[in-house]
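stage 2 :: seqdesign
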């Protein structure tokens, strides 16, 4: 019961002064037997009560009101100083800049174009439709063979690479069909 625990702690000053009723004092005693934290706090308060503090003297008590007034006046003048005004205006300006940047970021998010549909799932393979593409739509790329390709083929004129590049789409389809038939026959 947390609220009962807090109520007991609030009664400690009156408990130490001895001004609690007998029933209330018995309740505090029962609680102190069960609660280690409250016993520790009561011991601490008892030590504070026994601790004697010296009287600061007559001069302290006479000058205290003047010190309080001087401190209050300094705080009041500091509130209206240039430094205080600059700090306050810089804080307000920084807050406004942050709000504007957040608003612009939110508005820009709405203007962004949709993502590339082919990039939605980059780890999956997508099948593209090439039915509407003709040979005229595909640019012809002529590459010059490198020195390695020239020596690997033996002669520049007898390059298989050049022969495959020069085939039309119908010739490639015929070659593909011929290779499939050859594979079916096992040759």
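stage 2 :: out
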């Amino acid at each position: 019961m947390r609220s009962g625990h807090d109520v007991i702690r609030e009664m400690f000053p009156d408990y130490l002064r001895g001004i609690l009723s007998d029933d209330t004092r018995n309740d505090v005693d029962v609680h102190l037997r069960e609660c280690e934290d409250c016993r520790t706090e009561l011991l601490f308060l008892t030590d504070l009560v026994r601790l004697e503090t010296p009287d600061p003297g007559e001069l302290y008590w006479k000058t205290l009101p003047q010190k309080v007034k001087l401190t209050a006046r300094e705080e009041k003048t500091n509130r209206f100083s240039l430094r205080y005004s600059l700090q306050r205006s810089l804080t307000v300006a920084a807050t406004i800049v942050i709000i504007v940047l957040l608003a612009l970021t939110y508005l820009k998010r709405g203007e962004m174009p949709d993502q590339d549909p082919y990039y939605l799932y980059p780890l999956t393979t997508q099948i593209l439709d090439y039915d509407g593409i003709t040979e005229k739509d595909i640019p012809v790329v002529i590459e010059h063979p490198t020195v390695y390709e020239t020596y690997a083929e033996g002669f520049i004129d007898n390059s298989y690479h050049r022969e495959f590049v020069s085939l039309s789409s119908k010739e490639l389809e015929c070659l593909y069909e011929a290779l499939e038939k050859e594979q079916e026959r096992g040759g």
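stage 3 :: structure notes
- The chain has a mean pLDDT of 76.
- Residues 2-50 form one domain.
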